[in-house]
């Protein structure tokens, strides 16, 4: 307990609570729900509980006393998230405490950067390190951990030439100094080689699994051995210049994704692509990819950055934000002045946000102009239909300045006071619910069209026929984000739902796991001193009756913990209490996204 005080854990010491009788290592079925705790104050309108398990066998649940419960990180343990590690030649056995549910069988696959420099050349941005694919396997209560670098062109060529060869998101690859001036000159005009550094996510297409970034290149991997199989160029299958790392996968295996399309004569659009499920003929579904809807672009030369989109059984929602890609820089100047992807972004300070809706089956755009004030958007939480409305839940960052400007590794590796100083200048996070009416009547001009009883979100029809949206705030904490949202996707994706699980970012440092009831705004939090978790993946119990019957999986690093600095954490999704953890003797750098592949 003493060392916690030094880390800013005064609240815990000031409000000691004896261990509760169920806070041990009980089978999941025996863990009773945590009691609802008093109002927190610092989450707007939230109620919640706070779960601490600081030392090996001490497990506590107690209320959060107030604003001061936000923890501090003066020891800077989060810097370990951005350190190069070696891959493993074979899986290692993890040391399990608690009891892994016997029904939990399969693999947690996750992607992130694992190599943050090549020789003496550093990568500069969070999205530049070379892709490392991680796997935790669960089998009969035992856990193993494995990881391999994805053999992308970017990685293989860097290893071969011992320098950064392919320009990454925020790092320019200088030409080979051994080449003479003429060959260097011509190599500039060959055009930029687009990176295939698949560090963001992994997803299934048919029976295959692909690691991906956001360019036109995805990389097929073997989900059992983590070996790289082949690079796939989406441009060869369908008309997009890239696709997001957040496709929607329907229960029959159909894949939907969205990507920018830079057409002839500078025509710009956002294309929704559909990859059908595997058919009886076993032909690669990629061969049957098609564009099903095209969303127009608000600016002829500048498409918006798009990271994810919304999908319901009948509608597709695309949120066009003011973070723009300046195509003129991107297409012509880049190779001449040696810029990287980050240099091609700019903000439109006046457009705000435009939302677009299309009918999924007919591929038809709704002729409705939804507008709201400026925000950055990376992750949709969920979208559903209700009585002529679309409910669109988002993790927003307020304002038009690009949040990625704050994600340079130098910022993220700074000392805690500097991390906080930087984050205070950045756009501020807020989880929000927008409600979009699917039809309008001109007679309602000036009125709020939202008639759903359970939301304070509004949609006002203006005389110019735009529909101005004001959100309902579902989570807000100054400089504390609810991000990397996950839901019980298989059963509730695109449908009315109650719970979302997220990673808490404290001034961009991931330091808590949070469950949020989007109806009541009640929250449950898992947090430990000097521990840095990743996106929580929900895995439902095979016989689940309720939406939150299951567990939440997260990779956590705990640099001060001695010989076992990282672990896979299993939480009861009901109350975010710990069920088990599987510790490994190696550090695990930051991972962004992933999935659970059932055995
Ligand atoms: Fe993402």
TrEMBL record:
Q: Where in the cell is it found?
A: Cell membrane
Q: Where is this region: Disordered?
A: 39-58
Grouped into one coarse class, the protein's main location is membrane
Q: Which GO terms describe its cellular component?
A: plasma membrane
For whether the record's keyword set contains NAD, the answer is no
What membrane topology does the annotation report for this chain?
Lipid-anchor
Report the cofactors.
Answer: Fe(2+)
Segments of skewed composition (Low complexity): 39-57
Q: What are its E.C. numbers?
A: 3.1.1.64, 5.3.3.22
Relay the cofactor remark from the entry: Binds 1 Fe(2+) ion per subunit.
Keyword annotations for this protein, in alphabetical order, are: Cell membrane, Hydrolase, Iron, Isomerase, Lipoprotein, Membrane, Metal-binding, Palmitate, Sensory transduction, Vision
Record-level GO BP terms: retinal metabolic process; visual perception; zeaxanthin biosynthetic process
Query: InterPro entries in the record, alphabetically?
Result: Carotenoid_Oase (IPR004294)
GO MF: all-trans-retinyl-ester hydrolase, 11-cis retinol forming activity; beta-carotene 15,15'-dioxygenase activity; metal ion binding; retinol isomerase activity
Positions binding Fe cation in this chain are: 246, 307, 379, 593
Catalytic activity line of the entry: all-trans-retinyl hexadecanoate + H2O = 11-cis-retinol + hexadecanoate + H(+); an all-trans-retinyl ester + H2O = 11-cis-retinol + a fatty acid + H(+); lutein = (3R,3'S)-zeaxanthin
| Similarity comment: family membership | Belongs to the carotenoid oxygenase family.
Q: Report the protein name in the record.
A: Retinoid isomerohydrolase
């Amino acid at each position: 307990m003493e060392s916690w005080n030094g880390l800013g854990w005064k609240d815990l010491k000031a409000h000691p609570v004896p261990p509760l009788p169920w806070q041990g290592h009980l089978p999941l079925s025996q863990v009773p729900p945590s009691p609802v705790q008093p109002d927190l104050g610092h989450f707007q309108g939230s109620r919640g509980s706070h779960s601490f398990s600081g030392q090996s066998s001490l497990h506590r649940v107690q209320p959060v006393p107030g604003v001061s419960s936000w923890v501090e990180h003066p020891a800077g343990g989060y810097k370990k998230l951005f350190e190069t590690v070696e891959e493993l030649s074979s899986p290692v056995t993890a040391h399990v405490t608690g009891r892994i549910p016997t029904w939990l069988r399969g693999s947690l696959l996750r992607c992130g950067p694992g190599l943050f420099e090549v020789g003496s050349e550093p990568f500069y941005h969070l999205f530049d390190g070379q892709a490392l694919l991680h796997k935790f396997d669960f089998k009969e209560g035992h856990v193993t951990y494995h990881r391999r670098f994805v053999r992308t062109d970017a990685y293989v060529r860097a290893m071969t030439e011992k320098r950064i060869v392919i320009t990454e998101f925020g790092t320019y690859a200088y030409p080979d100094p051994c080449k003479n001036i003429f060959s260097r000159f011509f190599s500039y005009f060959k055009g930029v080689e687009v990176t295939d550094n698949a560090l963001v996510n992994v997803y299934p297409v048919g029976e295959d699994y692909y690691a991906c970034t956001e360019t036109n290149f995805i990389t097929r991997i073997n989900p059992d051995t983590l070996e790289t199989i082949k690079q796939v160029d989406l441009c060869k299958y369908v008309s997009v210049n890239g696709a997001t790392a957040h496709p929607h996968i329907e229960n029959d295996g159909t894949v939907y994704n969205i990507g920018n399309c830079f057409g002839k004569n500078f025509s710009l659009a956002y294309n929704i692509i559909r990859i059908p499920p595997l058919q009886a003929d076993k032909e690669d579904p990629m061969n049957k990819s098609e564009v099903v809807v095209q969303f127009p672009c608000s600016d002829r030369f500048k498409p918006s950055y798009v990271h994810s989109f919304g999908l319901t059984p009948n509608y597709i929602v695309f949120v066009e934000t003011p973070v723009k890609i300046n195509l003129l820089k991107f297409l012509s100047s880049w190779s001449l002045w040696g810029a990287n992807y980050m240099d091609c972004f700019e903000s439109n300070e006046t457009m705000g946000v435009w939302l677009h809706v299309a009918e999924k089956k007919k591929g038809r755009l709704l002729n409705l102009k939804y507008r709201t004030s400026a925000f950055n958007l990376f992750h949709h939480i969920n979208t559903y239909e209700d009585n002529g409305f679309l409910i669109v839940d988002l993790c927003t960052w307020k304002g038009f300045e690009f949040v990625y400007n704050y994600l340079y590794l130098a910022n993220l590796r700074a000392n805690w006071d500097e991390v906080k100083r930087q984050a205070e200048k950045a756009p501020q996070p807020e989880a929000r619910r927008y409600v979009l009416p699917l039809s309008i009547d001109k007679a309602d001009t000036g009125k709020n069209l939202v008639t759903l009883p359970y939301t304070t979100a509004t949609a006002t029809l203006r005389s110019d026929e735009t529909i101005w949206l004001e959100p309902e705030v579902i989570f807000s904490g100054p400089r504390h984000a609810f991000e990397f949202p996950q839901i019980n996707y298989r059963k509730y994706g695109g449908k009315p739902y109650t719970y979302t699980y997220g990673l808490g970012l404290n001034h961009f440092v991931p330091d808590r796991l949070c469950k949020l009831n989007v109806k009541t705004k009640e929250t449950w939090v898992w947090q430990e001193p000097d521990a840095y978790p990743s996106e929580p993946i929900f895995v439902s119990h095979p016989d689940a009756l309720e939406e939150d019957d299951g567990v939440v999986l997260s990779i956590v690093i705990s640099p001060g913990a001695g010989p076992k600095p990282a672990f896979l954490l299993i939480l009861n999704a009901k109350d975010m209490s710990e069920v088990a953890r599987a510790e490994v003797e190696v550090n695990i750098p930051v991972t962004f996204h992933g999935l659970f592949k059932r055995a």
